[in-house]
Specification:
CATH architecture of one domain: 2-Layer Sandwich
Structural class: alpha/beta
Number of helices: 3
Shape: elongated
Largest sheet: 5 strands, mixed
Distance between the termini: 88 Å
Strand order of the largest sheet: 3-2-1-4-5
CATH topology of one domain: Nucleotidyltransferase, domain 5
Order of helices and strands: HEEEHEHE
Strand content: 5-15%
Radius of gyration: 35 Å
Helix content: 25-40%
Length: 134
């Protein structure tokens, strides 16, 4: 006759493990629900006037058409005039953003001349305008 110590175990009792998982699930649900609610606070009121000096600087558009003529916004300029106007703008707004718009038929040399002027002035917020492919 076999004693109790020699008895083989054919199955594993998983009840304590299931109880542990249910307790962990309950703790997770309670902590998640508590974290979502937050606290009620009285938020400060802002003034009705908007701060005008906090606006971003106006983007300057430099356009190079198919003939190679250059425009700053809508004003035709030469490279020297472009440099002097951008120098004046940079003195008032150091981080002036610039977009260069070159016609597809324009010479690469003209675009590089404009980028060279921007590099000499230390303007580093430069965008190159393109179209989405059809």
């Amino acid at each position: 006759m076999a004693s109790a110590d020699e008895k083989s175990y054919d199955d594993i009792n998983v009840t304590p493990m299931v109880d542990l998982y249910l307790v962990l699930l309950l703790i997770f649900i309670v902590m998640t629900a508590a974290g979502v609610k937050g606290m009620k606070v009285e938020l400060p009121k802002a003034s009705d006037k908007a701060a005008k000096n906090l606006s971003v600087p106006k983007i300057q558009a430099i356009t190079i058409d198919a003939e190679g003529s250059i425009q700053l916004n809508t004003t035709p300029v030469t490279l020297d005039e472009l440099e002097s106007k951008l120098t004046a703008m940079k003195s008032t707004t150091p981080d002036i953003p610039v977009i260069v718009r070159g016609d597809t038929a324009s010479q690469y040399k003209e675009v590089m001349s404009v980028l060279d002027v921007l590099g000499r002035l230390g303007i580093d917020k430069i965008g190159l305008a393109t179209q989405k492919p059809k």
